[in-house]
């Protein structure tokens, strides 16, 4: 609750106060006064109404207008003589504006930035001025305009707020740094300013006495933009919708939308109800789009422009207002949400904006959202009310006096069964809980704090303290002056906090002891006494405890610095000590000033600090992760209870004065949703309620378990806050003016209400032992020690106590305890219900059943919602008669039971006799086709009307049957037709003998049942053809076939049989079989009907070869083998061997089939081969392998090498598979198969095959050859391959270096090989070694030729003498080298001799192959010897470029594949 202290402004001299104005942020109030002696002055006051020295501006005339600069503490004052002065409170300087106005300055308005101001006088002159940082006007106005009206209203368009400016600055920085998204937003002007705002708020709209509206842009241009029907009384700007609102003297409200160039468009125009007066009508914004108006009536009229709604706020006589009391002025504080109205009787009416939350808020009426508070009573007729400064001070002007009201949270205290509550600025009530006495006390000082003990009450105001003795009657016991913020009492001592110390005084103020705090400990911020222990907390986070039971206060334990135990500690806001001085609980803020969600409890003996986080609902010693599914019901109950209170922060804490472990916390819901806890739906939530804003939470502070949660409940809206507790009661302060229904106050006039603690219901008047036993039970139950808990209460016999404990188990979710309680109560039905609900997996579902048995239906509803058991919630709603909620639940969350819910509701309404209400619910449940006729059976007319209206086919059919039963055939036919019941139509027409109409309906609709019925009618009348026709339409082919057979209609029988089932086909075939002329039809029908044996038998019998072929195509392994053999023989006889093979395979005579394929060259296809492949599961694997090999052999013979390879592979004979693959010549598959087979023989086979290819031009093939020979360990073959490579290098490329390398590799491989013939291996190695030696000599000769050509020639000469030279080195290459050498030396004779020698050793030599043709010609030319045959001359004419012979051929394999 809030009380308001009134501070009366003390003016320098008496007079009439004509105007008041608060600065928006600074604590400065300007009051313009017209003294009785003449002239006028403006005085600046502080927030408590005290005049500020030197801040007095006087003139010979009166002030006519006031306006504070919104940014700087400078006030602009307009005077009746046209002067304008600016007083700077910051610099204590007075500035005069240039003399411009000739008449009374009636209007002064600043823009939001404080850098532009508009002034206007009574003559119609307006001026817009620029202002500097001190508020001084520019020398010349930006705009000067004389209008034909007196300007009375002006609104500047809002500029960019500081928050938006900061966002824009950050956006600009991001854009400069290269952020494309920021760059796009930066160029989007709409992102840089509020909707409709004018960048820096330099434009404005003005209006006046003639109803004309003008727009002044930032350059000072003035343009008329609107005209109203009368004088403009008020002009307002709706910021969030960019709307200009104008109210005229006749209370005509018009809304204008604004364009960027200042033009206006009228959007809404309405006439306001209210009293039209000559005096000004006071209007203010009281919320978003909400306009509050006071015009001297008994009400404040509220206009919601956004919702187009209006209502009134009236005064209440029960609150102390008089009948006919009128409201003259109005003011609204957005920070406090308080709307103030000043009345003509000197009262200040206040309405607190307190709307409902949740879904119900949408339906709440406007006037119910405002709560009228107790009025503040002043003197005179209040004409002005102004809220000002960030401290929420309210100034009220009643002409002869100005009063400043300051909001103060009501002080209250309870201790030692004495409760004291402040009821007004200087009044309080004292309640003695023991005797029930109630005292109303008026004090001489404003009360800012209260402290009570058993015999005394202390009050103080920050300057003075007063002590009252209340032991017998209320009387003053002492008064002393002190600047203390806190006073505590113990026996005859008063403890006061002062800077850096705590003074112990007697009641007259004499200091008896001084408790000092050093600089490190800081200043005292909180102080409390419980028992005989004093706790003090300081600004630096220290907690100190003193024992005050002796003559002087002594330190009780070692102080603690909380900052060492708590991170990010801000200020300590409350510190409380328990009754035995062992624990101190403190509330703190965070270092950023935000509320701290944690409670900290310091154990004075152990020096430890434990905590309980209201954001999570758990203490620091509870480390359970709530996501675990394997938890007990007890732990799950604790988790759910933690969720119920999570998301809050503490407001106040109280220890019980007797029970040292019991701690009570008053906690408020956090405004933000970004806490650490992801809250689930709370137990306290319902469809129409949101979580309570304030909760009372009881805790136990234990040594072993830390701080544990015991109970919680929402603060009743009628209560202001928790005052304290003393087992078994909580004590609350009741809001003034609240109804007392269900609230038990201490006395009729008291504001203190008491509420029994949950655990003590039924024991509140019990003896102390019973209360102690219940407290022990509650404690042990909370920590989970059930044995001790039940021991504590075993002597309690009261049934009401057990019932209360059972209800307590609904909150704690302790079903084990609940069963014991129900047993002690003798509640057999409840115990049985709990046993039955035990199968439900959700704990909350079980607890909900307990709540139902105990009559706690609201709790049951919340629990079902909490565990999302909407099926049980639906059943609960139905059982409790809440059908609206039941259907809503089924519609939204339990759709599987939606129809059942509607059905049950319909039965409920039917039982109540509400037939009209039951029908639509039966329809929704889709049971109306049976239920509605049953329900209306005794009212045929109502039933017929319902059926006619409903147009349901089933209902119409039912009604037709009913009409038929009564003999009304025509009506029955109509309803059968409407219900599209064609069978019944045909049946009735047949009954009436109208077969033609029946046939017409049957043919049109094709309804099978109708056609069948009509066919039977025709059969009965021997109309066989029509009967067959309608049996066919009804697809009753067996009946049609029967008639055809009976009446020898063979022409129709065949078609009917083919359309019918297999059984009918066979039956018809037997009929045809009796006639020798229709055997072909019999065979076909036996075949189509699946009777192959019979079909084959008849086909063989009647030699129908075409039919046999068709039948054979459909034969499978299920066919009789004898028939298969017979068919196969038939096909062999007629030379159709492929079909015979197929049938043999079907008959599983694979050998015969293969023999036939081999004899008659029947190609084995992939499909046929697969049919002859036995499954791997076949037990006789040898048979399977032989069969596969035989299939493969035949495929091989037929040239199907790939298929042969596949079958050989399946048979496991990879060698044969490789041979078949080699025959196919598919190199890629050969390489692949060799790689996956991994058999030496296959590797060699693959390599041999690849060697037959042109491996010289494909390096990949050469790699595979080498690789396969190596993997196959065929080193002799590999040596042969290297030998072949060497020969290729010599023959084709004359590359003896690589040939030497290849032969070296061949020698290595051959030497490692293990040949069976060792002598042959030795012989081959010797030959290779000899060849290698010869080639080495020739290579050496070629290498040394460049440096020692003679030596090279000598070596060549030696080589030519080798007998086996030609096996390694071509003789022509040696001769060629020598001939070229001598030709270069121009020793042509020697060269020619070697040519002749070469010709003699190689008679058929082509000389040009070994010697350059130019060299040959040069030798012959030099020796003058003509070129002859065999010399190479014969190739000369056709030779291209002779150099091509010598051209180096590029190697076909990579260097790494070459030979060293």
Give an account of the 3D structure.
By secondary structure, the protein is α+β, with helices and mostly antiparallel strands. The chain is 37% helix and 25% strand. Strands 26, 27, 28, 29 and 30 form a 5-stranded antiparallel β-sheet that branches. Helix 7 packs antiparallel against helix 8 (828-836), helix 11 (870-879) runs antiparallel to helix 12 (883-892) and helix 19 packs antiparallel against helix 20. It is extended. Mean pLDDT is 81; it is low at 189-198, 673-688 and 1429-1460.
**Rg calc:** 57 Å
The tally of beta strands, per DSSP, is 62
N/C terminus separation: 106 Å
Instruction: Note the total helix count.
Output: 47
Low-confidence stretches: 189-198, 673-688, 1429-1460
Mean pLDDT: 81
Q: Name the helicity range.
A: 25-40%
Largest sheet: 5 strands, antiparallel
């Amino acid at each position: 609750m809030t009380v308001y202290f009134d501070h009366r402004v003390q003016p320098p001299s008496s007079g009439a106060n004509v105007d008041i104005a608060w600065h928006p942020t600074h604590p400065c109030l300007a009051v313009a006064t017209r003294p009785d002696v003449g002239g006028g002055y403006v005085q600046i006051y502080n927030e408590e109404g005290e005049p500020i020295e030197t801040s007095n501006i006087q003139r010979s005339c009166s002030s006519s207008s006031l306006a504070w600069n919104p940014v700087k503490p400078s006030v602009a004052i307009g005077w009746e003589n046209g002067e304008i002065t600016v007083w700077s409170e910051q610099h204590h300087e007075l500035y005069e504006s240039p003399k411009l106005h000739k008449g009374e300055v009636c209007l002064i308005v600043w823009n939001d930035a404080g850098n532009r101001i508009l002034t206007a006088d009574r003559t119609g002159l307006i001026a817009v001025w620029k202002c500097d940082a001190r508020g001084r006007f520019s020398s010349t106005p930006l705009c000067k305009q004389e209008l034909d009206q007196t300007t009375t209203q002006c609104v500047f368009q809002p500029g960019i707020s500081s928050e938006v400016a900061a966002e824009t600055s950050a956006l600009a920085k991001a854009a400069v740094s290269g952020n494309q998204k920021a760059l796009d937003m930066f160029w989007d002007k709409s992102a840089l300013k509020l909707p409709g705002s004018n960048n820096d708020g330099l434009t404005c709209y003005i209006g006046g006495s003639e109803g004309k509206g003008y727009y002044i842009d930032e350059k000072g241009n003035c343009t008329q933009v609107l005209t109203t029907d009368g004088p403009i009384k008020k002009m307002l700007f709706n910021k969030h919708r960019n709307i200009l609102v104008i109210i005229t003297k006749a209370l005509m409200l018009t809304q204008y939308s604004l364009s960027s160039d200042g033009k206006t468009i009228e959007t809404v125009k309405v006439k306001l109800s209210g009293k039209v007066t000559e005096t000004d009508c006071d209007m203010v914004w009281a919320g978003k789009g909400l306009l509050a108006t006071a015009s001297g009536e008994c009400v404040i009229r509220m206009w919601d422009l956004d919702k187009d709604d209006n209502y009134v706020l009236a005064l209440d006589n029960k609150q102390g207002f008089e009948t006919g009391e009128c409201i003259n002025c109005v003011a609204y504080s957005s920070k406090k949400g308080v709307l103030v109205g000043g009345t003509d009787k000197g009262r200040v009416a206040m309405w607190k904006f307190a709307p409902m939350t949740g879904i119900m808020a949408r339906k709440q009426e406007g006037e119910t959202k405002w709560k009228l508070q107790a009025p503040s009573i002043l003197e005179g007729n209040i004409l002005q009310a102004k809220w000002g400064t960030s401290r929420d001070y309210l100034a009220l002007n009643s002409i002869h006096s100005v009063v400043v009201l300051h909001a103060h949270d009501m002080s209250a205290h309870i201790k030692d069964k004495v409760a004291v509550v402040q009821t007004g600025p200087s009044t309080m009530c004292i309640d003695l809980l023991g005797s029930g006495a109630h005292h109303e006390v008026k004090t001489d000082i404003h009360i800012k704090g209260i402290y009570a003990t058993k015999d005394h009450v202390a009050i103080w105001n920050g300057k003075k303290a007063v002590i009252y003795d209340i032991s017998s009657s209320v009387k003053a016991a002492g008064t002393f002056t002190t600047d203390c913020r806190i006073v505590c009492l113990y026996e005859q001592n008063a403890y006061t906090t002062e800077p850096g110390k705590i003074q112990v005084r007697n009641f007259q103020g004499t200091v008896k002891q001084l408790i000092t705090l050093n600089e490190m400990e800081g200043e005292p911020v909180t102080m409390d006494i419980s028992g005989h222990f004093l706790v003090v907390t300081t600004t630096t986070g220290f907690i100190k405890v003193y024992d005050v039971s002796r003559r002087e206060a002594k330190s009780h334990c070692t102080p603690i610095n909380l900052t060492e135990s708590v991170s990010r500690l801000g200020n300590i806001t409350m510190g409380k000590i328990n009754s035995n001085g062992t624990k101190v609980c403190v509330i703190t803020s965070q270092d950023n000033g935000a509320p701290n969600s944690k409670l900290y409890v310091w154990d004075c003996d152990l020096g430890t600090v434990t905590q309980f986080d209201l954001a999570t609902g758990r203490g620091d010693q509870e480390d359970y992760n709530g996501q675990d599914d394997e938890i007990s019901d007890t732990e799950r109950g604790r988790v759910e209870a933690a969720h119920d209170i999570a998301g809050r922060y503490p407001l106040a804490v109280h220890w019980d004065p007797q029970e040292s472990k019991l701690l009570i916390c008053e906690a408020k819901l956090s405004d933000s949703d970004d806490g650490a806890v992801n809250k689930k739906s709370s137990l306290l939530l319902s469809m129409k309620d949101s979580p309570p804003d304030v909760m009372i939470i009881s805790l136990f502070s234990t040594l072993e378990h830390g701080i544990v949660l015991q109970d919680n409940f929402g603060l009743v809206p009628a209560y202001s806050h928790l005052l304290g507790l003393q087992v078994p009661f909580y004590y609350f302060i009741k809001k003034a003016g609240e109804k007392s229904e269900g609230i038990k106050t201490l006395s009729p006039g008291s504001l203190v209400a008491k509420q029994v603690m949950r655990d003590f219901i039924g024991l509140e008047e019990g003896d102390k032992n019973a209360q102690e036993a219940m407290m022990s039970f509650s404690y042990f139950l909370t920590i989970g020690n059930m044995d001790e808990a039940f021991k504590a209460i075993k002597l309690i016999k009261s049934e009401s106590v057990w019932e209360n404990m059972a209800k307590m188990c609904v909150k704690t979710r302790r079903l084990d305890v609940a069963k014991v309680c129900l047993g002690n109560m003798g509640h057999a039905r409840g115990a049985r219900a709990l046993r039955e609900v035990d199968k439900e997996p959700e704990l909350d579902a079980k607890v909900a059943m307990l709540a139902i048995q105990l009559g706690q239906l609201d709790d049951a509803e919340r629990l079902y919602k909490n565990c999302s058991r909407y099926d049980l919630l639906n059943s609960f709603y139905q059982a409790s008669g809440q059908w609206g909620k039941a259907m809503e639940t089924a519609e939204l969350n339990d759709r599987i039971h939606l129809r059942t819910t509607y059905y049950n509701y319909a039965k409920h309404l039917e039982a109540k006799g509400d037939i009209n209400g039951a029908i639509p619910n039966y329809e929704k449940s889709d049971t109306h086709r049976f239920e509605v006729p049953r329900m209306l059976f005794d009212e045929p007319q109502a039933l017929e009307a319902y059926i006619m209206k409903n147009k349901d086919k089933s209902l119409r059919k039912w009604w037709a049957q009913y009409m038929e039963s009564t003999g009304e055939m025509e009506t029955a036919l109509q309803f059968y037709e409407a219900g599209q019941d064609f069978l019944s139509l045909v049946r009735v027409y047949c009954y009436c003998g109208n077969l033609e109409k029946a046939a017409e309906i049957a043919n049109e609709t094709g309804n099978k049942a109708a056609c069948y019925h009509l066919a039977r009618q025709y059969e009965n009348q021997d109309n066989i053809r029509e009967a067959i026709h309608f049996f066919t339409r009804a697809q009753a082919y067996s009946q049609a076939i029967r008639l055809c057979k009976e009446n020898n209609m063979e022409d129709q029988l065949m078609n009917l049989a083919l359309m019918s089932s297999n059984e009918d086909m066979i039956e018809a075939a037997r009929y045809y079989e009796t006639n020798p002329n229709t055997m072909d039809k019999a065979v076909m029908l036996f075949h189509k009907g699946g009777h192959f044996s019979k079909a084959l038998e008849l086909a063989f019998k009647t030699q129908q070869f075409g039919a046999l072929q068709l039948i054979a195509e459909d034969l499978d392994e299920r066919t009789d083998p004898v028939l298969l053999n017979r068919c196969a023989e038939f096909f062999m006889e007629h030379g159709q061997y492929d079909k015979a093979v197929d049938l043999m395979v079907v008959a599983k005579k694979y050998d015969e089939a293969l023999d036939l394929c081999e004899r008659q060259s029947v190609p084995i296809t992939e499909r046929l081969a697969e049919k002859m492949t036995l499954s791997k599961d076949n037990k006789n694997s040898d048979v399977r392998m032989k069969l596969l090999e035989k299939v493969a052999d035949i495929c091989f013979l037929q040239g199907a090498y790939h298929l042969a390879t596949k079958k050989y592979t399946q048979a496991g004979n990879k060698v044969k598979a490789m041979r078949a693959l080699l025959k196919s010549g598919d190199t890629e598959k050969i390489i692949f198969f060799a790689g996956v087979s991994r058999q030496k023989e296959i590797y060699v086979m693959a390599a041999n095959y690849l060697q037959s290819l042109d491996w010289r031009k494909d390096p990949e093939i050469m790699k595979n050859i080498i690789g396969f020979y190596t993997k196959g360990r065929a080193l002799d073959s590999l040596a042969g391959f290297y030998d072949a490579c060497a020969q290729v290098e010599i023959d084709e490329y004359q590359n003896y270096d690589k040939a030497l390398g290849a032969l070296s590799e061949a020698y290595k491989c051959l030497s490692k090989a293990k040949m069976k013939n060792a002598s042959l291996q030795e012989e081959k190695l010797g030959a290779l070694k000899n060849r290698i030696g010869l080639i080495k000599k020739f290579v050496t000769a070629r290498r040394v030729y460049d440096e020692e050509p003679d030596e090279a020639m000598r070596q060549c000469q030696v080589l030519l003498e080798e007998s086996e030279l030609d096996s390694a080195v071509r003789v022509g290459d040696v001769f060629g080298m020598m001939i070229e050498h001598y030709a270069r030396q121009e020793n042509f004779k020697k060269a020619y001799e070697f040519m002749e020698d070469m010709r003699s050793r190689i008679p058929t030599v082509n000389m040009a192959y070994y010697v350059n043709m130019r060299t040959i010609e040069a030798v012959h030319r030099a020796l003058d010897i003509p070129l002859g045959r065999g010399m190479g001359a014969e190739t000369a004419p056709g030779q291209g470029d002779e150099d091509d012979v010598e051209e180096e051929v590029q190697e076909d394999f990579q260097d790494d594949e070459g030979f060293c």
